[in-house]
Every structure is written in C-alpha cells, then in structure tokens.
Predict the structure.
Amino acid sequence: MKKRKLKKEKKRVRRVFDKWMEPLGLLWWTILVDYNEGREDFQNEDNTEIVCNVQMRWEYLEALITVNVGCTAQLSDAELERSLVHELVHILIAEMQGEPGEVKHQERVVTLLTKAFFWVRVADQLEEK
Ligand SMILES: [Zn+2]
C-alpha cells in the first residue's frame, strides 16, 4: 500500500475509534492501535484475511487492536465502522471470554451488542430531529 493511501486509511480508522471510544465507556482503558498491511500470519484458519484482532489484558484495562489496513481499505465507511465497533465490543466483554475454541457464543453476544449500539445511536439521532 502506498504511503499516502496508508495514511488516509489510518485516518479513516482513527476517526471511527474517536467517534465510539467515549460513548462505549472505553476512555478508562489504555487502548493501543497497531496497523498492518496484510501480514501472512494475519489470517483465519480458512486462509481468509483477518480484518482486525484484539489482544487484551482486561484485568489491567489494556488492549492492543491490530487493524489490517490492507483489508479495511476495501470496506465501505459503514462496513468499516461496524467492523471496528465489533472489535471494541469485544473489549467490553473481555472478561467473559471462555476457553480457546469457544468463540461462537462470544461472537454472537458481541454481534448483538454491536447492533444494539447502532440502533440506540440511530434512535438518538431521530429523537434529536
Ligand atoms: Zn468478533
């Protein structure tokens, strides 16, 4: 990815985090954001690319989000926002994480909560009009 495009993509990602961190109550956390452009080790078991990954030390309220900008650059603004908010919701429920391999329940809860946050936000905007 060219330097200019990379800079633009990082800015687009940052904008979503800036929009959602406070409403989700994540300003208490130390959250670092790292970017990669599609490393080979950044793939799911079925060889599809991982868009985003979060590593947490929830007991210390610390998280590292790694964003695959090679992937996000291909998402629309709405898709990018949904995808990044999904990762932030993972942070919210981090301490409920089960054993490795038990991810389906957690993914469902995260997906549902992500949708709920968007619905609340839309409802708020409609009320303001
Ligand atoms: Zn997830």
User: Anything to note?
Assistant: Residues 104-128 form the longest helix (25 residues). The first strand starts at residue 30 and ends at 36. The pocket of zinc ion is lined by residues 86, 90, 107, 110 (CB under 6 Å). The mean pLDDT is 91.
